[in-house]
Specification:
By secondary structure, this protein is of the alpha+beta class. It has two domains: about 70 residues, Orthogonal Bundle (Multidrug-efflux Transporter Regulator, Chain: A, Domain 2); about 140 residues, Alpha-Beta Barrel (Multidrug-efflux Transporter 1 Regulator Bmrr, Chain A). It contains seven helices and eleven strands. The strands form two sheets. Strands 4-9-11-10-6-7-5-8 form an eight-stranded antiparallel beta sheet, with helices on both faces. Strands 1-3-2 form a three-stranded antiparallel beta sheet. A hairpin with a 2-residue loop joins strand 6 and strand 7. It is elongated and about 85 Å long. It starts with 6 loop residues before the first strand and ends with a strand. The model has no long low-confidence stretch (mean pLDDT about 85).
Length: about 250
């Protein structure tokens, strides 16, 4: 082409990192159209504006939006709130995944931090249990009940236990469920302030590791409520080696 302001379909495909077939599919879906066609083969050429539009389509696709949803977005013919909600959920899930990956790095550290835990909706069962094996089984059973009855909230850490040091055998088994969930065993937990760190190792070592939070609170004049949470990031479903388990130990202030 003599016109230096136009790009071939091959140049566009290479620049965006997609195939020519994908661009032709965008055309077929009504998302774009070539800015110029010529020659017996109908060679296609595009402006920088169309290139930008194709790049936007690709970004939205990578975020999980369908081509139909993207077309509605371009045409201003869709309610954007459901789309925003989906992208916010994706953001939250990505943040949780990044947090887990960072904890798996060699230089993760085990620093104690003061945190705020946002309100959330959980499915909660309370049982008297002592052994790690019993607790593991009860948490799995509670998770199965919650998933069958309400589904799960994948934007939150999904599983945790809660207990008070005065009655450590009385344990609450909690599973994050969608905020709109209603019914027996569903509770709305309020925002809380806490201190926490990530414990790498077997569940049997948690009582000893928990002492770090108690000592930290004493050294920093923080009054603990006596209630603790063990929030499970990685465990038996991911690892056979207990030393690779990751548990966030939380002391509520």
């Amino acid at each position: 082409m003599d016109n230096k302001n136009l790009f071939t379909i091959g140049e566009i495909a290479k620049a965006v990192g997609i195939t020519r077939k994908a661009i032709l599919n965008y055309e077929a879906k009504g998302l774009i159209k070539p800015d110029k066609k010529d020659g017996t083969a109908g060679n296609r050429y595009y402006t920088i504006d169309t290139f930008t539009q194709i790049h936007t389509i690709r970004v939205f696709q990578n975020l999980g939006l369908s081509l139909d949803e993207i077309r509605e977005y371009f045409n201003d013919s869709s309610d954007l709130q459901p789309m925003i909600a989906r992208l916010e959920m994706l953001r939250d899930e990505l943040n949780l995944t990044l947090e887990k990956l960072k904890e798996r790095t060699v230089d993760h550290g085990n620093a104690i931090k003061e945190i705020t835990i946002e309100p959330q909706t959980v499915y909660r069962h309370v049982y008297n249990s002592a052994s790690v094996a019993d607790k593991t089984t009860l948490l799995r059973n509670t998770a199965l009940e919650a998933m069958r009855t309400h589904g799960t909230d994948t934007t939150r850490r999904m599983y945790f236990t809660e207990y008070n040091l005065k009655t450590p055998q009385k344990v609450s088994y909690c599973v994050a469920v969608p905020p709109a969930s209603k019914g027996e065993y569903v509770e709305q937990l309020p925002e809380i302030k806490a201190i926490s760190f990530f414990h790498h190792g077997a569940y049997e070592d948690i009582p000893e590791a928990r002492k770090r939070l108690i000592s930290y609170a004493e050294e920093n004049n923080l009054k603990l409520s006596g209630t603790f949470r063990n929030l499970y990031l990685e465990g038996p479903p991911q690892h056979k080696d207990k030393n690779k388990f990751i548990t966030q130990i939380i002391a509520i202030i």
